[in-house]
Amino acid sequence: MPSGALSPDAGSANSGITGLITASTAPTPPTQRLLRAGANLVGAGSAALFSYSFLQFYLETHRPIGIIFFTQQTLVALAFLVRRPARMVTHRLDDWLLAFAGTFIGVLSRPTGAHLAWGVWAGAALQLVGATIAVTCILTLGRSFGFAAADRGVVTRGAYTIVRHPMYSSYLLLGSGYVLQSLSVWNSAILVIGTVCNGGRALAEERLLANNTDYLAYRRRVRRRIVPGVW
Predict the structure, then answer these.
(1) Which of 50, 144, 165, 173 could staple 202 via S-S, CB 3.0–4.6 A?
(2) Ordered domains of the chain (ranges, CATH)
(3) In Å, how far are 7, 97, 99, 136, 155 from 206, measured between CA atoms?
(4) CA distance 124 to 129
């Protein structure tokens, strides 16, 4: 489950920014490698579990969206295993909480509420578009894929030419599609909370890169974060 615009990660930021792990405060190299490998394995394992569940969903229902989500989560698992080490990672607890909430809160959605015919079809279409964007973002990010705010290089091609955090755009579409299919106050609240969390992630990533000249130039070219023409 990925993060947004940068990887969520980008360029080289000021090593003196408070609340970030820098070279001067990082653990010894062997410890750092061990922690990084453990985090990557946990991320890959979590994505693999989601991938398996979507494969089972497809085999039981034969709905194409199942294969799309299976592909997405498989790519996420692979991305965790091959991503490059971050030059800088946020050490702020709130940034990590936003990342976890923005990524996983969707599992609290429930298939209850109103199932209007037009909502089911419209929701499926939104989910298809959202999943396609997510897959495209993962492929574009490649080894710059990340979870919480970190610096793995600025990515400016593909969907990143339209908004700075297209992965979070895909989350918004996926969540909106689910709400249309299972319309309820609970699911709507989950969507709002998840969207706010991902907006917070975008701001956290941009704070980390506040002194990165490459990112500042990119931000001037691409003005919106998540929703084209809005924010």
Answers:
(1) 165
(2) 20-221 (1.20.120.1630)
(3) 11, 17, 14, 22, 13
(4) 9
Q: Which residue has the tokens 């918004």?
A: 172
pTM over 0.85: no
Task: Note whether 201 and 145 are within 8 A (CB).
Answer: no
Cβ neighbours, 10 Å, residue 140:
18
| Averaged pLDDT, 195-218 | 93
Tracing tokens 């998840």 back to the chain, one arrives at 194
What is the mean predicted confidence (pLDDT) over 224-228?
Answer: 95
